[in-house]
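Protocol step 6 of 9: fold each sequence in the batch and record its C-alpha cells directly after the sequence line. For illustration, a two-sequence batch is reproduced in full.

Sequence one:
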Amino acid sequence: MTIEINATIRKAQGTGASRRLRNTGRVPGVVYGVGDVSLIDIDHNEIYYKLRNESFHASILSLNLDGKKEQVLLRDFVMHPFRQQVQHIDFQRVDANKKMHIKVPLHFLNADIAPGVKVGGGKISHVMNELDITCLPKNLPAFIEVDLSKLELGHSVHVSDLKLPNGVEVASHGTHAAEAVVATVQVPRGMLEAEVAAEAEAAAAASAAAAPAPAAGAAKAGAAAPAAKK
C-alpha cells in the first residue's frame, strides 16, 4: 500500500516565514530532483506520525501537491533540539528508469533458535540496523531479512550472507563491503569471566603439580638438625 502525503506550495521564504509557518502547525519543506525545486509545507501532525512509521523512511511515497501527485522519497528531516516538533523536511522525486541509492531497515529473524543463543547461551549483537542498497524504484524493498537460525557462538553474519531481493544490490563502500559484519553472537560477560577464572585455576594447579620435589639429602639434613641440638 502506497503511503500518501498531502502538501501545498509555499511562496514565503526565509527564516521568519518558516517560523511563522511552524507557529500555525505547518512544516516547511522542499521537493527536488527531476524538474524544478518546489517549496512546500505540510501539516505537522500528519508528517510527525508518519515519520514514526519505519516503512515511511524506505518506501516510494505519493506526494499530493495541490492536487497533483508525484512519487518521492524521504531524504532528510530536522527535529527541534528538545521538542517533539518537525522543523523541516526534504523529499526527492523518483525517476522510474534510474537506479536510486537508499538505506533500508534490516529485520532480524530466528534469534531465539540460533545455536549460539539456544545452546551456547550467547547474546545477539546487531552491528548494522540498515543496509545501503541501489535499485530501480520498482524493486525497492520495505526491508531486508537477516536469518540468524544457524548462527553459532562467536560467529557472525556478513553482508555477503544476506539474500537480497531481485534487482537489489549492496551499495559498494570499498573492496571489503561484502564482508562487513551485520550481526554476531557474543559470549556473555559472566560466562567469559568464569571461563577465564577456570583457566587460571587449572594453570595454577598444573604449575603446582609440575614443581620439583625437595632432594632426599636436604630432607634428611632438615630432619637431623633438631637432634644435633640435643
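Sequence two, same batch, same settings:
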Amino acid sequence: MTPFRLYILGCGSALPTLRHYASSQIVELRGKQFMIDCGEGTQMQVRRSKINFNKIQAVFISHIHGDHCFGLIGMISTFGLQGRKSPLHVYSPKELEQMLTSQISLFCPHLGFEVVFHAVNPDEQSIVYEDNSLTVETIPLEHRMPCCGYLFREKPTLPHIRRDMIDYLEIPISQINNIKRGADWTKEDGTVVPNSELVSPPDPSRSYAYCSDTRYIPTLHERLKGVDLLYHESTYGEDNLTRAETYYHSTARQAALVARDAGVGRLLLGHYSSRYQDENVLLNEAREVFKNTYLTDENAVFDI
C-alpha cells in the first residue's frame, strides 16, 4: 500500500511554550507533500522532520490567527533562498491574501517562484484541490473568525494484478494496464478469461480530516462519516469547559464525541492550551468516550 502519512510539526495553541510549537502538519501521499497551517517556527520543524522543502506543493491555512499562519512568510523567504522555482499554492480564507501580498512585496521582492493564492470559502464544504491521487475539501467550522478544516481523500486505486495468472496465461506486460482497467483476456483458442480471475481487489481508499480551531459542533460528525484518521482540536479539558465555550474552542471530550458519532478509525488530539503540563488528562477524558484516541506531539508520524 502506498504510504499516506501525517507529520506533526506543531500541536500547541496561541501562547508559545517550550514544550509545543504552534499548529502545523504535513500530509504526504505518493511522494507529494501538503502543509496544513503554518504557525511560527514551522520551517525549523520541517528541518527537524527531515522533510524536503521542495516537495511541499501547497499550504492550506485554516484561519487567520497568528498561531496558524505567522510562519508562512518566513518559510516562503527560505524557499526563495534555496532557489525554489516551482509555484507554491496557498489555500486560505480570503482575508490572508492582502497581508501575504504585502509581506512578499516587502520581504521577498525578488522571489524566484510564484506564490499562487486560492481563496476558499470557509462557510461551505467543497473541493478546493484535486489531482490524480487525491482531493482536498473544506470543512466549515465555528470559531471567532472565518475558519475551516480540510479533508484529504485518496482517490480509488486500480485493482492488483494476480501475478500467478499473468504468468500462467503468458499475458504480455503491455496488456497489464488494460486488465487493471477492467479488460478480460482472450486465449488463443478463443476462451475468454474474465477480469475477475486476473485481478484482486484494490486497496481501500483512505482519508484524513483536520479540524482546526472550533467550538463543539453537534452536527460536525455528519461531514466526517467513516474518516480513517481525524485530528480535532482539544484545547481544553472539561475543567475549562466555560473557557472553551467563551473562546470557541473544544474540549477533549467534545472532540471524542465527534469522533464517536462519525465512526472514524482513530482520533488525534492537539492544539493544547499552555495550562496543561501533562496532556494525559485530556487523553483520559477523550478515551472515556472514544477509546481509539491518541495525543499528538512534535515530530510524531502517523500512518493513515
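Proceed to step 7 once all outputs are recorded. Observation for sequence two: The longest strand covers residues 4-10.
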